[in-house]
Design a protein that fits this description.
Helices cover about 30% and strands about 15% of the residues. α5 crosses α6.
């Protein structure tokens, strides 16, 4: 059963996992996705717009540099400055990413899959579904979207209210409107023993048929269920801190799973300060508060990551890439309500393992459109390309030792950000 608050390691029961489910010793790179829902104003941190004619920018903000990263600095966002001072050399900021839509769900799908088609898997599902070893929890979605087609079985949705832990420990039945009567323990034990004999009998038959396949598959599911119930001390649904979800607590749960070697990817979601959302059609200064909170969490997250080791004793920071992104940007100018509407160009930030840090790739031109860049150098180039979600995805697949050409048509990785 999963605890509700304590963060720890695997219990003794968890060590009794069936052999195929034991944690892998292979060092597949791991990925934590942090998705800021609603579309952030990149002019407040990632992409300065001071030279863009007509752009509405903050009067007290300036361009600054720390850890090799040029960013927008403001006294209202000390956590941004502190983060880049401490971790900028491990970060690559990608500006001018085009996501050709202005509707949220469509943009999220494009950002995470490179396509609007429903027959695609997102980057995390591809990475998790193509892991070199069998994983108990390949891709864990604590909060946020998941788009799958071929790798649906690799995705585990925890549920924003802790539905998965409640299902595992049977407390979900207490919230049902239907009357539930528990079987006596001796009856349940007899049923389990009968099922175990049936599974063993079917899967042990020399001539494998459909019944044997079904029972074998059912047996695998029971093995995984037993392994899940054997985990203890990992909080997969951290309680909210104050008025918003605690991203540092979410990340701590993910790092527990990464350390055990049973998870390759995870998704967490930021809705900004007090869950007010990043979709600021009114009151755009709220973006500054969101950024201050986000980068404060990112500092805690990275400090925690740097204390962790894997089951083989390797520093976990050598195996984890953190991906911070939002599905769209915001228009350079204020609307009549003091907010900013949608913009099809956004930014992303990659942190950690495999990332050539201390650099910003891409930029916005004088019209706030993405400049063309050379993928090999990251420098502006008339013969380069406008960066897209496909380029971001190809970069993530390459970081995960997958060939982007096997999953994407005509999209290459941004080689400049790969070590």
């Amino acid at each position: 059963m999963f605890s509700r608050r304590q963060f720890g390691l695997m219990s003794a029961a968890g060590l009794l996992m069936p052999r195929p489910l034991l944690a892998s010793t292979r060092t597949d790179r791991k990925f934590l996705f942090v998705l800021c829902y609603g579309g952030w104003d990149t002019s407040m941190v990632f992409s300065p717009m001071f030279d863009i004619s007509g752009a509405d920018t903050e009067g007290d903000a300036t361009t600054a540099s720390a850890g090799g990263i040029d960013f927008v600095d403001s006294e209202a966002r000390p956590s941004v400055r502190s983060f880049f001072e401490n971790y900028g050399e491990r970060c690559a900021v990608i500006n001018g990413l085009e996501v050709p839509s202005v509707t949220h769900e469509r943009c999220r799908r494009i950002l995470m899959t490179g396509s609007t088609a429903t027959t695609t898997d997102d980057w995390a599902a591809l990475l998790a579904g193509n892991a070199t070893e069998s994983l108990l929890l390949p891709h864990v979605v604590l909060a946020g979207p998941a788009y799958t087609h071929q790798h649906t079985d690799a995705v585990i949705r925890v549920g924003s209210n802790g539905q998965l832990p409640d299902l595992l420990d049977n407390t979900a039945l207490q919230h049902s409107d239907m009357p539930v009567t528990a079987l006596p323990a001796e009856v349940s034990a007899l049923a389990d023993a009968h099922l175990a004999r049936a599974i063993a009998g079917q899967t042990g038959q020399a001539a494998a048929g459909r019944p044997a396949q079904v029972m074998s598959g059912y047996g695998d599911v029971l093995d995984k269920l037993a392994a899940l119930k054997g985990l203890d001390g990992v909080e997969l649904s951290p309680e909210d801190a104050g008025c918003a979800r605690d991203l540092a607590a979410d990340a701590a749960a993910v790092f527990d799973l990464f350390s055990m070697g049973i998870t390759r990817c995870a998704m967490v979601r930021s809705d900004g300060w007090c869950s007010q959302g990043w979709d600021t059609h009114q009151g755009n200064p709220l973006q500054s508060t969101h950024y201050e909170e986000l980068f404060g969490y990112l500092q805690l997250l990275m400090a925690d990551l740097d204390t962790r080791t894997t089951i083989t004793g390797t520093p976990l920071s050598e195996e984890v890439t953190v991906v911070v992104l939002s599905e769209m940007g915001r228009h350079p100018q204020f609307n009549t309500w003091g907010g900013k509407d949608h913009w099809t160009f956004t930014s992303a930030m990659l942190i950690g393992a495999g990332v050539a840090g201390g650099q910003v790739v891409g930029a916005l031109d004088g019209d706030a459109l993405g400049e063309k860049v050379a993928l090999t150098s990251g420098e502006p180039s008339d013969s380069g390309v406008t960066l897209s979600a496909e380029h971001l995805g190809a970069t993530l697949l390459a970081l995960g030792d997958l060939d982007p050409a096997d999953h994407l048509i005509d999209a290459a990785p941004i080689e400049a950000v790969l070590t």
